[in-house]
Amino acid sequence: MRTEPLTLNDNDPKVIAARGAENNLFDFYSLQAKDHYILLTEQSIEIRVSEIGSGEPLVIVPGNTGDVFPLSSLLAEFKGRRIIAINRPGGGLSEGIDHTTVNIREFAVKTIETVLDAFKLETVDVVAHSMGAHWSLWLALDRPQRVRSLTLLGNPGNVMQGKPPLLLRLISKPPLNKLFFKLLIPSDKSKALNSLKTMGHSSATLANQPKALGDCYYYFRLLPHYLISFMSLMENVAPKIDEQQLSKVQQPTLFLLGTKDTFASVGTGNQIAAAISNCEFHTIDGAGHLPWLESPEECGGIINAFLAKK
Length: 310
Description:
Layout: H1 13-28, E1 33-40, E2 45-52, E3 56-61, H2 72-75, E4 81-87, H3 104-118, E5 124-129, H4 130-142, E6 147-153, H5 166-171, H6 177-182, H7 203-207, H8 211-220, H9 226-235, H10 243-246, E7 253-258, H11 266-275, E8 279-284, H12 296-308
Helix pairs in contact: 1-8, 3-4
C-alpha cells in the first residue's frame, strides 16, 4: 500500500529549498516565470505551469518525472515566445500521483489538453523531452487538431527500440526499486548531477553547469511525493509507440538526438525519424540524453529555425 504524501506544504523546508533552487536557476538564465496552478479534476491533482515571456505560445512538456527546471538553459533561447511549461504531475512542485492508478495514455493526453484548455490555446507548437515527448506523441496522435508542430528532444520515451539505462530499468522492479532509487540521490549535494553521466553526459559538461542546476536536482528529489511519482511512472511503463503508430503522426516534426544519448543510438534515431512522414532529424555531436546541456545555442537555433517555417 502506498503511504507517501501526494500533496505539498508550502511551509515544508524541502519545498522551500526546491523552490529557492529553481528561482536561483531561473535567475541565472534571466527567466521570469509566473506560476499557474491547474486542477486535473478526475484525479483532484493540481499541476504547476510556469509561464515565461510573451509572444506566440510554445508549450513545453519535460521528461523524467516532469520537472521543467532541467530545460532552463534551452528556454532562455526561446526569446519572443510565450513559454507554457508544464510541470507534469509528480514533478516541478506539482502535486504527486501514483501512476499505476491511471490509464497512462489517457492520463497523459488529458493532462496536456487540460493545460491547453486552461490557457485557451486551440493549436500549439510543442517542444518535449524524453517521457514528455512520448506523452506529446500521444497528444499528436489522439488530438491532432491541438498540435501544430512537434519537437522531440532526446530519445522520446518507449519508442521503437529505445530504452532507459540499466539503473532506471531496475527502479521499475519492486521490491528493490527503493534501494536503487536512493542511488540517484547522493548524500553530497555537490554530486547531484552525477546521475546524468548514465545518460551520456560527460564530466566536463556537468562541471560547466551552474551550481543552481545541481541544487535543483538534489532538492527536488527530496520532495515527499517524488519517490512515489517517479517509481510508479517507471512501474507503469508507457506502452511502446511502434513504427506503425509513428507513421500516423502527420504534424511537422523535429527530432534532436545527442550522439551519446544512452537511451537510443543514432541508428535508432534515424529509424524513428524515418517512420514519421514529415520529420526533420538532427544529431547533436557529443551530447547526451538532454542534448541542450552540451549546446543550448545549437539546439535553440535549430528549434527556432524549424518553428519559423510553420
